[in-house]
Design brief:
Layout: H1 6-11, E1 17-18, H2 19-26, H3 29-32, H4 35-39, H5 43-53, H6 55-73, E2 82-85, H7 86-102, H8 111-131, H9 139-146, H10 148-177, H11 189-200, H12 208-238, H13 243-260, H14 267-271, H15 274-286, E3 293-298, E4 304-305, E5 311-312, E6 317-320, H16 322-326, H17 358-361, H18 380-384, H19 386-389, H20 411-428, E7 429-431, E8 441-443, E9 446-448, E10 454-459, E11 466-467, E12 470-471
Antiparallel strand pairs: 1-3, 2-10, 3-6, 4-5, 7-10, 8-9, 11-12
Helix pairs in contact: 5-11, 6-7, 6-20, 7-8, 7-12, 8-10, 8-12, 10-12, 12-15, 12-20
């Protein structure tokens, strides 16, 4: 559907146009995931509320895991270049860092758990595409057979996750029974989900088995999108004709912010990384993971009639061409060119105030006044303000995190994690520029990053603002 229909799509209730049913069909989730959990997404409010609320206190934990990961996979050799596979290394680092927030220490460093969580996450989309090849009446048989590896990966994760959940549940119950027993539980998603299930008195969600399955869904949501994006960001930066100026500008900003915050990364400091935020958003615009956005499935028995009179029967899918929107020259001048500063220039000048006119910045920040309707989900003034330009802000011209009430609840965590990954890579390593950026590949509806492409890195000799606990001068 054309982008002009976005407000209409967003206004339709879930019992008529269903996001959940569309996602279930896309991922063949009745076979690749747990059918109950995927239809009862009670973890979504927990992510939106508790994870976002605790981001400030989690920043140092995330950077600790990121530092350990880079040091392990990219090394500390300042003399010799090392060839590394970006996608593979980023998946490993993202898995450990994400699970520091999802399940906490020490499980986030358990290699058996991490390896099988990654395999579970990576297998699901490919199994779904295979299952789609078969007619509906054969899917139960084909699905049960082809997902045997996925169930194996799950069982290896459950070996660690289920006892962990049981122990935390037991500790919380003991706290309620025994006066003076001090226990709050680690600040991670698993603990917050247990608290949430207890508040709702939901006996199903209180089950360690169900909690385990929810954690793997959270891994799926976090690992894929974050790994794809940071892989694309790094290739965009070092494969750009303006690689030196882009990297130098981002590195200068990072060093300045880190020095201002006394050598410690904080949530407030991350919000100051305007250039990094712009580079991330530009990558997400250029290489959005899915070609179609706001996908819905008609589930009303009566179907639904569009504003132009066209009637859609039950079972029909609809969406908008997000890839086309993100590459629309009227919205984004030179839309097929990577411009790391596309979204940061107005935020680094006095003209970034919310009363600036469209004419002052059109062609610089990729906002076309004619496309911003009165009933649009983003106001012109908001789109020109610094908040409206950030990577976490959704709009009808930037759909990488979806839009409306179903916008990605973990996007604030994801962008913070991406900035920390960029910061460690750029501040601690020299990266050889590429003569040409390796290409991405379409796999069905998904646009995959260069999964096998390699780069050459070595540890920087120069000091970053914080080394071994001391501020560099």
């Amino acid at each position: 559907m054309p982008s002009s229909q976005i407000p209409w799509i967003l206004d339709q209730p879930e019992h008529i146009l269903s996001v959940t049913e569309a996602h279930i069909d896309t991922l063949e989730a009745d076979y690749t995931f747990d059918p109950y959990v995927i239809r009862h997404l009670t973890h979504i409010p927990v992510i939106r509320r508790d994870l976002t609320r605790h981001l400030g206190s989690l920043t140092s934990d995330l950077m600790e895991e990121i530092g350990l990961g880079f040091d392990q996979y990219w090394g500390s050799d300042t003399e010799n270049w090392k060839e590394v596979c970006v996608y593979d290394d980023m998946m490993r680092i993202v898995a450990s860092a994400s699970n520091r927030v999802l399940v906490g220490l020490p499980l986030c460093r358990n290699q058996e758990f991490l390896m099988n969580a990654v395999k579970f996450v990576q297998s699901a989309p490919f199994l779904a595409q295979f299952i789609k090849l078969f007619p509906k009446f054969l899917k139960p048989v084909i699905g049960s057979i082809t997902t045997i590896p996925s169930h194996y990966f799950y069982s290896k994760c459950a070996k660690h996750l289920v006892p962990l959940a049981e122990q935390r549940i037991a500790d919380l119950e003991k706290k309620q029974r025994e006066f003076g027993y001090e226990y709050e539980g680690p600040a991670d998603l698993l603990t917050w989900m247990i608290h949430d299930a207890n508040r709702r008195a939901d006996t199903v969600d209180q089950s360690p088995e169900v909690l385990c399955r929810r954690m793997l869904i959270a891994n799926f949501a976090s690992l894929h999108t974050t790994t794809f994006t940071i892989t694309n960001v790094l290739f965009d930066l070092i494969g750009s004709p303006y690689e030196k100026s882009h990297l130098a500008g981002i590195r200068e900003e990072m060093e300045r912010v880190l020095r201002e915050d006394h050598g410690v990364w904080t949530k407030a400091g991350l919000t100051k990384l305007v250039r990094a935020d712009s580079a991330i958003k530009e990558t997400m615009r250029l290489w959005g993971i899915l070609g179609t956005g706001l996908v819905r499935k008609v589930i009303s028995d009566e179907g639904i009639t569009l504003e132009n009179g066209l009637h859609l029967n039950k079972g029909v899918y609809l969406g908008v061409p997000s890839h086309g929107i993100h590459h629309d020259e009227t919205l984004y001048p030179q839309a097929n060119v990577y411009d790391a500063s596309r979204f940061c220039q107005p935020r680094e000048t006095p003209s970034a105030s919310q009363d600036v006119s469209v004419d002052d910045v059109v062609g610089t920040i990729a906002v076309d006044e004619n496309t911003v309707k009165k009933d649009s989900r983003i106001k012109v003034e908001e789109g020109l303000g610094s908040k409206g330009l950030s990577a976490t802000t959704t709009s009808d011209t930037f759909l990488s995190f979806s839009l409306g009430r179903h916008a990605c609840p973990g996007r604030f965590f994801a962008v913070d994690l991406l900035k920390l990954l960029m910061a460690y890579a750029i501040l601690h390593y020299e990266i050889k520029p590429l003569a040409e950026r390796p290409s991405n590949t379409w796999f069905g509806e998904a646009l995959l990053p260069p999964m096998k492409a390699t780069i050459h890195v070595k540890r920087r000799r120069s000091k970053c603002p914080m080394v071994d606990g001391q501020l560099a001068t």
